Structure formats: C-alpha cells, structure tokens
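Run log, item B.
One chain of 118 residues. Sequence copied directly from the ordering sheet:
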Amino acid sequence: MTEKTVNYTPEMEAVLTAVYNPKADEATRSDQINEIVEKVGRNRRSVIAKLSRMGLYVKKEYKNKRGEKPVSKAVLVSAIAKECGVNEEKVESLEKATKVALATVYQNLAGVEGVSEG
C-alpha cells in the first residue's frame, strides 16, 4: 500500500482557518489569500482550492462590465409581469427577447432608471 501525499499539514490548515474570514469583504478576502500564500508556501490557486475543500472559500461575486450585479432575463420577465398585473405564464415567451429590450420595457413600466436583482 502506498503512502498518501499530504499537501497541507494540520499546521497549514490551521493557518488557513486563522487567517481567512469568509465574512470579510471581497478585497479583504483577497488580501487574506495573499497572506496565506506567503505563510504556507503554496500558490494562490492551491490555497483557493484547499479553502474550497474545507468549505470556507467565498467565490467572487460576478459583475457585468458596468460593475453591476447582472439581472437574468427570467427576473426581468417576472418584474414585467408584476408591473402589468398578470400571471408570469402569460408573458413567459418574453424571455426570447433581448435583455436590453426587456430592461427597457421594465424601466418604462416601473418608471425606474436602472434594473436591480430581485
């Protein structure tokens, strides 16, 4: 039977749990990962993978090119249905329209400038 190679010792795992705070903001978590990289001598991807396996890693929130949280077409169609006072099934085929068209319709119905998730 071959001996299992250990990439992270219990001491290294202790550093990960001591330094990384999943509740911190995105920039702070990134700095914490950099600190762990220096302390344990592993690369960034390895540290992120280990944090993920430990159930600690919090993925970066995706933002569109304008720096906003993207809104799905389904959410837009749901919002349009709500603004029109109709059941979503009656307007579900609107999902075939472009996102720009859906956002424009919603903004005009709701009298708002931007569209946000939820």
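Observations after the first pass:
- The two ends are 54 Å apart (CA to CA).
- The helical segments are 10-19, 26-40, 44-53, 73-84, 88-91, 99-110.
Flagged for discussion on Thursday.
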